[in-house]
Amino acid sequence: MFSETKAFSGFSVNDIDAARTFYGETLGLRVSEENGLLFLHIAGDRDTLVYPKEDHTPATFTILNFPVDDIEAAVDELTKRGVRFEHYDDLKADDKGIFRGGGPLIAWFTDPAGNVLSVLQET
Questions:
Q1: VOC domain spans which residues (predicted)?
Q2: CATH code, domain with 44
Q3: Over the stretch 19-52, which tens digit does the pLDDT of each residue have?
């Protein structure tokens, strides 16, 4: 039934303007807006929908992962752009916020609405 449909994902934020600035300027994604909805144009030709929600509650899980070749360089650049990386009690990260405890190297951060995102090193 859905084998040929081009599915896409989406998530809510409490402030579309702040999301546009964060995703477009801080993260450097190509973004567009239509009818009050924000579209993140991500490589691979699959847009992600960002929609406003008055009673938005941040996701408690990672909603979007950004694979990178060099996590050290990505974390350093994002830190320069004002991104703060998360440190979780049960997942011990280094001083930069990179978790090195098994699996891919990964660092989590949040968008202005509190949704969890990550950069992870491709192997």
A1: 5-122
A2: 3.10.180.10
A3: 999 999 999 999 999 999 999 999 888 899 999 9
